[in-house]
Specification:
By secondary structure, the protein is mainly β. It is built from two helices and five strands, in the order αββββαβ.
Length: 102
Amino acid sequence: MTTEPPRRRILTLKSGIAPKTAEELFGKKRAPAKAAPPPPPPAPSFGWKCKPCGKGFDPPAEGPDDEVVRCPNCNARVGIAGDFRADPPPARLRARSVKKPG
């Protein structure tokens, strides 16, 4: 019959201080940070909108009055340059005026 040697004691740390909770260690619970509201969309920087596609554009400010104006997005013929400079613009334009901010 073989006898096993006595086992060593398992070491434990006994400091006499109760373990602290996370709230005690790091302070009060913080409320989650609120996300900042998204910035407002940029104001339109164009003066006219194409009726067929709805994209904004600026007609040429200078040049001959009989120059054809086309939408830079869909290439639709929206009118002639002289019609955009007229006050009030004629109803035959395929574009509508948009207020510029400021």
